[in-house]
Amino acid sequence: MSGCRVLPRLPLRRAFSHTAKHSKPWLPTGAYQSLSSPRGRALETYTRPSASVRSLVAYHATTKLQLLSTATDPNTSTSALPAPAPYTPPQTGLLSRLPRSWVPYAELIRLDKPAGSYYLFFPCVFSTLLAAPLASPVAAPAAVLGTSLLFLAGAVVMRGAGCTINDLWDRNLDPHVARTRLRPIARGAVTPRNGVVFAGAQLLVGLAVLLQFPPACFFYATPSLLLVAIYPLAKRVTYYPQFVLGLTFSWGAIMGFPALGVDLLANGAALAAAGLLYSSNVAWTVLYDMIYAHMDIKDDAKAGIKSIALKHDKETKQVLTGLALAQVALLAGAGIAAGAGPAFFIGSCGGALATLGIMIKRVNLKSVKDCWWWFVNGCWITGGVISLGLAADYVVRYVERDERDEPDGEAST
Protein backbone atom coordinates (compact mmCIF):
# COMPACT_ATOMS: atom_id res chain seq x y z
CA MET A 1 0.00 0.00 0.00
CA SER A 2 1.55 3.35 -1.03
CA GLY A 3 0.23 5.06 2.09
CA CYS A 4 2.03 2.69 4.49
CA ARG A 5 4.85 3.70 6.75
CA VAL A 6 7.02 1.34 8.77
CA LEU A 7 8.23 2.52 12.18
CA PRO A 8 10.73 0.56 14.27
CA ARG A 9 9.20 -2.58 15.86
CA LEU A 10 5.56 -1.51 15.28
CA PRO A 11 3.81 -1.82 11.89
CA LEU A 12 1.69 1.26 11.21
CA ARG A 13 -0.95 2.09 8.66
CA ARG A 14 -1.98 5.60 7.72
CA ALA A 15 -5.68 6.31 7.74
CA PHE A 16 -7.34 7.31 4.49
CA SER A 17 -8.22 10.97 4.20
CA HIS A 18 -11.78 11.77 5.13
CA THR A 19 -14.15 12.79 2.40
CA ALA A 20 -17.87 12.90 2.29
CA LYS A 21 -17.77 9.12 2.13
CA HIS A 22 -16.87 6.79 4.97
CA SER A 23 -13.09 6.54 5.51
CA LYS A 24 -13.27 2.73 5.32
CA PRO A 25 -15.53 2.11 2.32
CA TRP A 26 -15.31 -1.68 2.66
CA LEU A 27 -16.79 -1.53 6.18
CA PRO A 28 -20.47 -0.82 6.73
CA THR A 29 -21.61 2.06 8.85
CA GLY A 30 -21.24 1.32 12.57
CA ALA A 31 -18.96 -1.64 11.90
CA TYR A 32 -16.24 -0.27 14.12
CA GLN A 33 -18.32 -1.37 17.08
CA SER A 34 -17.70 -4.92 15.90
CA LEU A 35 -13.93 -4.64 15.85
CA SER A 36 -11.95 -6.17 18.66
CA SER A 37 -11.33 -3.84 21.56
CA PRO A 38 -9.26 -1.69 21.93
CA ARG A 39 -8.41 -1.55 18.21
CA GLY A 40 -12.02 -0.97 17.26
CA ARG A 41 -12.27 2.03 19.50
CA ALA A 42 -8.94 3.35 18.20
CA LEU A 43 -10.08 3.12 14.59
CA GLU A 44 -13.40 4.74 15.42
CA THR A 45 -11.61 7.61 17.11
CA TYR A 46 -9.46 8.45 14.11
CA THR A 47 -11.95 7.81 11.31
CA ARG A 48 -15.11 9.52 12.51
CA PRO A 49 -16.08 12.63 10.44
CA SER A 50 -14.84 15.04 13.12
CA ALA A 51 -11.29 13.67 13.05
CA SER A 52 -8.39 15.40 11.34
CA VAL A 53 -7.79 14.67 7.66
CA ARG A 54 -4.22 13.67 8.45
CA SER A 55 -5.20 11.36 11.33
CA LEU A 56 -2.87 8.42 11.83
CA VAL A 57 -4.25 5.07 12.93
CA ALA A 58 -1.67 2.76 14.55
CA TYR A 59 -2.37 -0.88 15.17
CA HIS A 60 -0.58 -4.23 14.78
CA ALA A 61 -0.58 -5.19 11.13
CA THR A 62 -0.54 -8.86 12.03
CA THR A 63 -3.86 -8.65 13.84
CA LYS A 64 -6.75 -9.70 11.69
CA LEU A 65 -9.70 -7.31 11.99
CA GLN A 66 -12.82 -9.42 12.27
CA LEU A 67 -16.45 -8.39 11.88
CA LEU A 68 -19.46 -10.15 13.29
CA SER A 69 -21.89 -11.40 10.70
CA THR A 70 -24.48 -8.89 11.86
CA ALA A 71 -22.16 -5.98 11.10
CA THR A 72 -23.17 -6.03 7.46
CA ASP A 73 -26.51 -4.55 8.47
CA PRO A 74 -26.12 -0.78 9.04
CA ASN A 75 -29.07 -0.85 11.45
CA THR A 76 -27.50 -3.56 13.65
CA SER A 77 -25.16 -2.60 16.47
CA THR A 78 -22.98 -4.97 18.45
CA SER A 79 -21.28 -4.39 21.75
CA ALA A 80 -17.53 -4.39 22.15
CA LEU A 81 -15.83 -7.21 23.99
CA PRO A 82 -16.18 -6.74 27.76
CA ALA A 83 -13.14 -5.57 29.67
CA PRO A 84 -11.68 -7.94 32.28
CA ALA A 85 -13.52 -7.69 35.57
CA PRO A 86 -11.74 -5.53 38.14
CA TYR A 87 -10.76 -6.85 41.56
CA THR A 88 -13.50 -6.84 44.16
CA PRO A 89 -12.81 -7.62 47.84
CA PRO A 90 -14.32 -10.88 49.16
CA GLN A 91 -17.93 -10.43 50.24
CA THR A 92 -18.50 -13.88 51.71
CA GLY A 93 -16.51 -16.59 53.44
CA LEU A 94 -13.57 -16.42 55.81
CA LEU A 95 -11.70 -13.65 53.99
CA SER A 96 -14.68 -11.28 54.22
CA ARG A 97 -14.40 -11.38 58.02
CA LEU A 98 -10.74 -10.41 58.14
CA PRO A 99 -9.49 -6.82 58.48
CA ARG A 100 -9.15 -5.25 55.06
CA SER A 101 -5.37 -4.93 55.35
CA TRP A 102 -5.03 -8.66 56.06
CA VAL A 103 -6.98 -9.83 53.02
CA PRO A 104 -4.15 -9.59 50.42
CA TYR A 105 -1.88 -11.70 52.62
CA ALA A 106 -4.63 -14.24 53.26
CA GLU A 107 -5.17 -14.43 49.50
CA LEU A 108 -1.43 -14.78 48.97
CA ILE A 109 -1.32 -17.99 51.07
CA ARG A 110 -4.59 -19.20 49.45
CA LEU A 111 -6.32 -19.32 52.84
CA ASP A 112 -9.67 -19.58 51.06
CA LYS A 113 -8.44 -22.44 48.84
CA PRO A 114 -7.03 -25.09 51.20
CA ALA A 115 -6.83 -27.95 48.67
CA GLY A 116 -3.09 -27.42 48.26
CA SER A 117 -2.56 -27.79 52.00
CA TYR A 118 -4.44 -31.08 51.95
CA TYR A 119 -2.32 -32.39 49.08
CA LEU A 120 0.78 -31.48 51.10
CA PHE A 121 -0.66 -33.07 54.25
CA PHE A 122 -1.79 -36.43 52.85
CA PRO A 123 1.74 -37.78 52.11
CA CYS A 124 2.63 -36.99 55.74
CA VAL A 125 -0.36 -38.99 56.95
CA PHE A 126 0.47 -41.88 54.62
CA SER A 127 4.03 -42.13 55.93
CA THR A 128 2.96 -41.75 59.56
CA LEU A 129 0.45 -44.60 59.31
CA LEU A 130 2.83 -46.78 57.30
CA ALA A 131 5.71 -46.15 59.72
CA ALA A 132 3.70 -46.64 62.94
CA PRO A 133 3.79 -50.49 62.90
CA LEU A 134 7.52 -50.38 62.09
CA ALA A 135 8.37 -48.36 65.19
CA SER A 136 9.77 -50.20 68.17
CA PRO A 137 7.54 -50.53 70.04
CA VAL A 138 4.59 -50.01 67.69
CA ALA A 139 3.58 -46.35 67.91
CA ALA A 140 0.59 -45.71 70.14
CA PRO A 141 -2.56 -44.12 68.66
CA ALA A 142 -1.93 -40.94 70.67
CA ALA A 143 1.53 -40.61 69.13
CA VAL A 144 0.15 -41.17 65.63
CA LEU A 145 -2.59 -38.58 66.16
CA GLY A 146 -0.25 -36.00 67.69
CA THR A 147 2.28 -36.44 64.90
CA SER A 148 -0.45 -36.08 62.28
CA LEU A 149 -1.70 -32.82 63.83
CA LEU A 150 1.81 -31.38 63.81
CA PHE A 151 2.11 -32.34 60.15
CA LEU A 152 -1.19 -30.59 59.45
CA ALA A 153 0.09 -27.36 61.01
CA GLY A 154 3.32 -27.65 59.06
CA ALA A 155 1.48 -28.32 55.81
CA VAL A 156 -0.68 -25.20 56.17
CA VAL A 157 2.31 -22.98 56.98
CA MET A 158 4.67 -24.37 54.34
CA ARG A 159 2.04 -24.41 51.65
CA GLY A 160 1.45 -20.71 52.31
CA ALA A 161 5.19 -20.04 52.14
CA GLY A 162 5.41 -21.98 48.89
CA CYS A 163 2.54 -19.98 47.36
CA THR A 164 4.21 -16.72 48.37
CA ILE A 165 7.54 -17.75 46.85
CA ASN A 166 5.75 -18.94 43.70
CA ASP A 167 3.92 -15.63 43.29
CA LEU A 168 7.12 -13.66 43.80
CA TRP A 169 8.78 -15.59 40.96
CA ASP A 170 5.67 -15.31 38.77
CA ARG A 171 4.84 -11.65 39.42
CA ASN A 172 5.53 -10.77 35.77
CA LEU A 173 3.72 -13.83 34.38
CA ASP A 174 0.57 -13.89 36.51
CA PRO A 175 -0.91 -10.68 35.00
CA HIS A 176 -1.10 -12.45 31.62
CA VAL A 177 -3.12 -15.44 32.88
CA ALA A 178 -6.83 -14.93 33.48
CA ARG A 179 -6.97 -17.07 36.61
CA THR A 180 -3.95 -15.46 38.27
CA ARG A 181 -4.04 -11.83 37.12
CA LEU A 182 -5.73 -10.65 40.33
CA ARG A 183 -3.38 -12.37 42.76
CA PRO A 184 -2.12 -9.89 45.38
CA ILE A 185 1.40 -9.40 44.03
CA ALA A 186 0.27 -9.43 40.39
CA ARG A 187 -2.30 -6.67 41.00
CA GLY A 188 0.03 -4.64 43.25
CA ALA A 189 -1.79 -5.15 46.56
CA VAL A 190 1.40 -6.67 48.03
CA THR A 191 4.79 -5.33 47.02
CA PRO A 192 7.60 -7.77 46.21
CA ARG A 193 9.52 -6.45 49.23
CA ASN A 194 6.63 -7.15 51.58
CA GLY A 195 6.15 -10.53 49.91
CA VAL A 196 9.75 -11.50 50.67
CA VAL A 197 9.37 -10.43 54.32
CA PHE A 198 6.09 -12.34 54.59
CA ALA A 199 7.65 -15.48 53.08
CA GLY A 200 10.52 -15.24 55.56
CA ALA A 201 8.10 -14.97 58.46
CA GLN A 202 6.23 -18.06 57.31
CA LEU A 203 9.47 -20.03 57.00
CA LEU A 204 10.33 -19.11 60.59
CA VAL A 205 6.94 -20.37 61.74
CA GLY A 206 7.52 -23.55 59.74
CA LEU A 207 10.87 -23.95 61.49
CA ALA A 208 9.16 -23.60 64.86
CA VAL A 209 6.77 -26.42 63.92
CA LEU A 210 9.62 -28.57 62.63
CA LEU A 211 11.50 -28.23 65.92
CA GLN A 212 8.60 -29.96 67.69
CA PHE A 213 9.57 -33.20 65.94
CA PRO A 214 12.55 -35.42 66.86
CA PRO A 215 15.91 -33.79 65.93
CA ALA A 216 16.47 -36.17 63.02
CA CYS A 217 13.49 -34.63 61.21
CA PHE A 218 15.35 -31.34 60.81
CA PHE A 219 18.02 -32.98 58.66
CA TYR A 220 15.46 -34.87 56.58
CA ALA A 221 13.27 -31.81 56.01
CA THR A 222 15.88 -29.17 55.14
CA PRO A 223 16.63 -30.34 51.55
CA SER A 224 12.98 -29.82 50.61
CA LEU A 225 13.44 -26.03 50.85
CA LEU A 226 15.59 -26.12 47.71
CA LEU A 227 12.74 -27.77 45.80
CA VAL A 228 10.27 -25.17 47.11
CA ALA A 229 12.48 -22.42 45.72
CA ILE A 230 13.20 -23.89 42.28
CA TYR A 231 9.72 -25.15 41.34
CA PRO A 232 8.55 -21.78 39.96
CA LEU A 233 11.63 -21.72 37.72
CA ALA A 234 10.93 -25.18 36.33
CA LYS A 235 7.86 -24.02 34.41
CA ARG A 236 10.11 -21.66 32.44
CA VAL A 237 12.58 -24.29 31.22
CA THR A 238 10.72 -27.61 31.00
CA TYR A 239 7.34 -28.97 30.03
CA TYR A 240 7.41 -31.11 33.17
CA PRO A 241 7.36 -28.67 36.11
CA GLN A 242 4.74 -30.96 37.67
CA PHE A 243 7.50 -33.49 38.26
CA VAL A 244 9.44 -30.91 40.30
CA LEU A 245 6.23 -30.08 42.15
CA GLY A 246 5.80 -33.79 42.84
CA LEU A 247 9.28 -34.02 44.34
CA THR A 248 8.36 -31.06 46.57
CA PHE A 249 4.83 -31.93 47.66
CA SER A 250 5.67 -35.60 48.28
CA TRP A 251 8.45 -34.92 50.76
CA GLY A 252 6.11 -35.70 53.65
CA ALA A 253 6.03 -39.33 52.48
CA ILE A 254 9.51 -39.62 53.99
CA MET A 255 8.99 -37.51 57.12
CA GLY A 256 6.60 -39.82 58.97
CA PHE A 257 9.33 -42.38 59.56
CA PRO A 258 11.84 -40.21 61.46
CA ALA A 259 8.92 -38.44 63.17
CA LEU A 260 8.02 -41.74 64.87
CA GLY A 261 11.61 -42.65 65.61
CA VAL A 262 12.18 -45.08 62.72
CA ASP A 263 15.80 -44.85 61.59
CA LEU A 264 15.74 -45.06 57.81
CA LEU A 265 19.49 -45.56 57.55
CA ALA A 266 19.45 -48.53 59.92
CA ASN A 267 16.19 -50.14 58.79
CA GLY A 268 16.32 -51.41 55.23
CA ALA A 269 12.63 -52.32 55.08
CA ALA A 270 11.61 -48.87 56.27
CA LEU A 271 13.95 -47.19 53.79
CA ALA A 272 12.49 -49.21 50.91
CA ALA A 273 8.95 -48.47 52.07
CA ALA A 274 9.69 -44.74 52.35
CA GLY A 275 11.30 -44.61 48.90
CA LEU A 276 8.43 -46.43 47.21
CA LEU A 277 5.81 -44.36 49.04
CA TYR A 278 7.60 -41.17 48.03
CA SER A 279 7.70 -42.27 44.38
CA SER A 280 4.02 -43.18 44.53
CA ASN A 281 3.15 -39.71 45.77
CA VAL A 282 5.25 -38.08 43.05
CA ALA A 283 3.14 -39.92 40.45
CA TRP A 284 -0.03 -38.82 42.25
CA THR A 285 1.10 -35.18 42.33
CA VAL A 286 1.90 -35.14 38.61
CA LEU A 287 -1.49 -36.73 37.93
CA TYR A 288 -3.64 -34.25 39.79
CA ASP A 289 -1.55 -31.23 38.78
CA MET A 290 -1.84 -32.24 35.13
CA ILE A 291 -5.61 -31.92 35.52
CA TYR A 292 -5.08 -28.60 37.32
CA ALA A 293 -2.83 -27.34 34.50
CA HIS A 294 -5.63 -27.84 31.97
CA MET A 295 -7.46 -24.91 33.56
CA ASP A 296 -4.74 -22.53 32.30
CA ILE A 297 -3.65 -24.33 29.16
CA LYS A 298 -4.63 -21.53 26.73
CA ASP A 299 -3.20 -18.70 28.80
CA ASP A 300 -0.04 -20.69 29.55
CA ALA A 301 0.57 -21.14 25.83
CA LYS A 302 0.25 -17.39 25.24
CA ALA A 303 2.42 -16.45 28.21
CA GLY A 304 5.14 -18.98 27.35
CA ILE A 305 4.61 -21.02 30.51
CA LYS A 306 5.41 -24.70 30.07
CA SER A 307 3.39 -27.58 31.51
CA ILE A 308 2.79 -31.27 30.97
CA ALA A 309 -0.76 -30.42 29.91
CA LEU A 310 0.58 -28.43 26.96
CA LYS A 311 3.11 -31.08 26.02
CA HIS A 312 0.61 -33.96 26.07
CA ASP A 313 -2.68 -32.20 25.41
CA LYS A 314 -3.90 -34.74 22.84
CA GLU A 315 -3.06 -37.81 24.92
CA THR A 316 -3.77 -36.49 28.42
CA LYS A 317 -6.11 -39.31 29.43
CA GLN A 318 -3.54 -41.92 28.43
CA VAL A 319 -0.84 -40.16 30.44
CA LEU A 320 -3.17 -39.89 33.44
CA THR A 321 -3.92 -43.60 33.21
CA GLY A 322 -0.22 -44.46 33.16
CA LEU A 323 0.42 -42.22 36.17
CA ALA A 324 -2.45 -43.82 38.10
CA LEU A 325 -1.14 -47.32 37.45
CA ALA A 326 2.36 -46.25 38.49
CA GLN A 327 1.03 -44.66 41.66
CA VAL A 328 -0.91 -47.76 42.73
CA ALA A 329 1.92 -50.15 41.84
CA LEU A 330 4.46 -48.13 43.84
CA LEU A 331 2.00 -47.84 46.72
CA ALA A 332 1.59 -51.61 46.76
CA GLY A 333 5.37 -51.98 46.73
CA ALA A 334 5.62 -49.73 49.77
CA GLY A 335 3.06 -51.89 51.56
CA ILE A 336 4.97 -55.07 50.73
CA ALA A 337 8.21 -53.56 52.03
CA ALA A 338 6.50 -52.48 55.25
CA GLY A 339 4.79 -55.84 55.77
CA ALA A 340 1.27 -54.45 55.40
CA GLY A 341 -1.75 -56.75 55.51
CA PRO A 342 -4.93 -57.27 53.44
CA ALA A 343 -6.63 -54.16 54.84
CA PHE A 344 -3.99 -52.00 53.19
CA PHE A 345 -4.00 -53.73 49.82
CA ILE A 346 -7.78 -53.84 49.58
CA GLY A 347 -8.51 -50.45 51.11
CA SER A 348 -5.59 -48.29 50.03
CA CYS A 349 -4.44 -49.89 46.76
CA GLY A 350 -7.84 -51.09 45.58
CA GLY A 351 -9.53 -47.87 46.65
CA ALA A 352 -6.94 -45.70 44.93
CA LEU A 353 -7.22 -47.69 41.71
CA ALA A 354 -11.02 -47.38 41.69
CA THR A 355 -11.21 -43.67 42.57
CA LEU A 356 -8.48 -42.65 40.14
CA GLY A 357 -10.11 -44.66 37.36
CA ILE A 358 -13.45 -42.95 37.94
CA MET A 359 -11.83 -39.51 37.99
CA ILE A 360 -9.85 -40.06 34.80
CA LYS A 361 -12.92 -41.36 32.99
CA ARG A 362 -15.27 -38.57 34.09
CA VAL A 363 -13.14 -35.43 34.15
CA ASN A 364 -13.83 -33.04 31.29
CA LEU A 365 -10.43 -31.54 30.52
CA LYS A 366 -11.97 -28.81 28.35
CA SER A 367 -14.02 -27.46 31.27
CA VAL A 368 -12.23 -25.25 33.78
CA LYS A 369 -15.02 -25.79 36.29
CA ASP A 370 -14.88 -29.58 35.97
CA CYS A 371 -11.08 -29.68 36.27
CA TRP A 372 -11.28 -27.59 39.42
CA TRP A 373 -13.98 -29.82 40.92
CA TRP A 374 -11.94 -32.97 40.43
CA PHE A 375 -8.76 -31.29 41.63
CA VAL A 376 -10.40 -30.24 44.91
CA ASN A 377 -12.55 -33.30 45.55
CA GLY A 378 -10.13 -35.86 44.13
CA CYS A 379 -7.80 -34.91 46.97
CA TRP A 380 -10.28 -36.15 49.57
CA ILE A 381 -11.59 -39.06 47.53
CA THR A 382 -8.27 -40.70 46.67
CA GLY A 383 -6.30 -39.41 49.64
CA GLY A 384 -9.14 -40.45 51.93
CA VAL A 385 -9.35 -44.06 50.78
CA ILE A 386 -5.57 -44.49 50.96
CA SER A 387 -5.57 -43.08 54.50
CA LEU A 388 -8.46 -45.30 55.59
CA GLY A 389 -6.73 -48.40 54.26
CA LEU A 390 -3.49 -47.48 56.03
CA ALA A 391 -5.36 -46.68 59.25
CA ALA A 392 -7.21 -50.00 59.15
CA ASP A 393 -3.95 -51.87 58.61
CA TYR A 394 -2.32 -49.98 61.50
CA VAL A 395 -5.20 -50.78 63.87
CA VAL A 396 -5.13 -54.47 62.97
CA ARG A 397 -1.39 -54.71 63.51
CA TYR A 398 -1.55 -52.71 66.74
CA VAL A 399 -4.24 -54.99 68.14
CA GLU A 400 -2.30 -58.09 67.07
CA ARG A 401 0.75 -56.78 68.89
CA ASP A 402 -1.28 -56.32 72.08
CA GLU A 403 -2.62 -59.84 71.81
CA ARG A 404 0.90 -61.23 71.39
CA ASP A 405 2.23 -59.22 74.33
CA GLU A 406 -0.66 -60.03 76.70
CA PRO A 407 0.29 -63.70 77.46
CA ASP A 408 3.86 -62.62 78.14
CA GLY A 409 2.62 -60.09 80.65
CA GLU A 410 0.44 -62.63 82.45
CA ALA A 411 3.26 -65.20 82.60
CA SER A 412 5.59 -62.73 84.22
CA THR A 413 3.11 -62.15 87.03
Automatic annotation (TrEMBL):
Source domain of life: Eukaryota
GO cellular component terms listed in the entry, alphabetical order: mitochondrial inner membrane
Single biological process term from Gene Ontology: terpenoid biosynthetic process
Compartmental location: Mitochondrion inner membrane
EC code(s) of this entry: 2.5.1.39
Residue spans crossing the bilayer: 118-136, 217-234, 243-262, 268-288, 319-337, 343-360, 372-392
CDD domains in alphabetical order: PT_UbiA_COQ2
Pathway in which this enzyme or protein is active: Secondary metabolite biosynthesis; terpenoid biosynthesis; Cofactor biosynthesis; ubiquinone biosynthesis
Catalytic reaction annotation: an all-trans-polyprenyl diphosphate + 4-hydroxybenzoate = a 4-hydroxy-3-(all-trans-polyprenyl)benzoate + diphosphate
Main location: mitochondrion
Enzyme class of the recorded protein, top EC level: transferase
Topology of this chain in the membrane: Multi-pass membrane protein
GO molecular function terms noted in the UniProt entry: 4-hydroxybenzoate polyprenyltransferase activity
Pfam families in the record: UbiA (PF01040)
Cofactor: Mg(2+)
UniProt keyword list: Isoprene biosynthesis, Membrane, Mitochondrion, Mitochondrion inner membrane, Transferase, Transmembrane, Transmembrane helix, Ubiquinone biosynthesis
InterPro entries per UniProt: HB_polyprenyltransferase-like (IPR006370), Prenyltransferase (IPR039653), UbiA_prenyltransferase (IPR000537), UbiA_prenylTrfase_CS (IPR030470), UbiA_sf (IPR044878)
Job description of the protein: Catalyzes the prenylation of para-hydroxybenzoate (PHB) with an all-trans polyprenyl group. Mediates the second step in the final reaction sequence of coenzyme Q (CoQ) biosynthesis, which is the condensation of the polyisoprenoid side chain with PHB, generating the first membrane-bound Q intermediate.
Protein family per UniProt: Belongs to the UbiA prenyltransferase family.
Protein name per UniProt: 4-hydroxybenzoate polyprenyltransferase, mitochondrial
